[in-house]
Amino acid sequence: MAHVLLHGAPSAKGAPLNRWFDKSLQFIVTRNGKAGLLGEHSMMDGMPVARVAEMIACQSYKECILTSSTRPLDFRVAPSAISLFAPDCVPSCLDADIEQARRDFIEMAGKHEIQAKCFSGYGSDWIKHRAKMYPDAYVQMVMQIATYRLWDGQQGGTYEATQTRPFLHGRTETTRTVSPESAALVKRFGLHPLWHEVQDNKARNEKLRLLQEATKAHVKYITSASQGYGVDRHFLGLMLSAQGDKEIPNLYSNPVFQRAKTWRVSTSQLSFPHFDNWGFGEVTPDGVGLSYAINPKRLNFSITALRRHEWADRLAHHLVEALLEVQMLVEADEREALAVQVPLSVIRQ
């Protein structure tokens, strides 16, 4: 499904020619009845697109029939529009350019790989009521553990899109997932799961404490970002306002600053019940695009990266592994608490 949405159905020559990437929003219906959206992100964010999808998905066939019978749609196309895409109307002098564009597109798309992963072990219900943590922050920390293991002990600068739509013209702000608390968390979890520590009270309590601290720090940051107190859009605005001057302030060429705004892990959550999955590309060649959806009973991920890294499958494995690891720690802690309570009740009797 993701392949069809991005590449299109093969033409007679075996090449995808039915994707118009200059269009802001495309609706694609496949042969098996599945439908999808392909959107241009620079002009719109996930929530407006999800609202459009919700309106479409929640309208019944009966409502569609009644609407179309009372207000017939006019599918006539102006001759000037036909000339834009009718093959017979394309000047022959453009044939070479069109063929080159087709080859460039195939080459670019072929360099990428996408891995869609649906984790059905648990979802937001379990995270809230059993782990007793904020679901988005919980998943962000799981992704930190997974990428830390993918990159052999390195945290990558991580961007989470945060809505600022309550403000006039507000779109997004950056929530930075890498923090002193998340750094302590990933170092303690290490490069591989230590399954024997699930039954070790001291080790288990330490890991769960670090996870709680990291999720609380993330909630604090995302709350500040959504209220307009983030730093990244502020720095962007200052840079844009300074571009008319003779030179940009030295801060923007500082290596530490450059590293601080290089997003190796670009993430965003869009939890919508009618979406099987969704995703976007990486924003740096040395990074991954990691979208996710948090549903009551499942978690969906979509991983995009350059094919040459061979990261997509490996990161999917690390995500599932970390989700199961934390689940085992939480449930072992519950059993330990229950075991302590039972003798007390017997004594009272």
CATH superfamily of the largest domain: Chloramphenicol acetyltransferase-like domain
Strand-residue proportion: 5-15%
Q: How much is the average pLDDT?
A: 85
**Alpha-carbon distance between the two ends:** 61 Å
Number of domains: 2
Specify the biggest β-sheet.
6 strands, mixed
How do the strands of the widest beta sheet line up side by side? 3-8-7-6-4-5
Helix/strand order, N-terminal first: HEEHHHHEHHEEHHHHEEEH
Could you say which structural class the secondary elements and strand pairing correspond to? alpha/beta
Topology overview:
Elements: H1 2-7, E1 25-29, E2 35-39, H2 46-57, H3 61-70, H4 79-85, H5 95-110, E3 112-119, H6 124-131, H7 135-150, E4 158-163, E5 172-176, H8 180-189, H9 201-226, H10 232-242, H11 255-260, E6 265-269, E7 288-294, E8 299-306, H12 312-348
Parallel strand pairs: 4-6, 6-7
Antiparallel strand pairs: 1-2, 3-8, 4-5, 7-8
Helix pairs in contact: 7-8, 7-9, 7-12, 8-9, 9-12
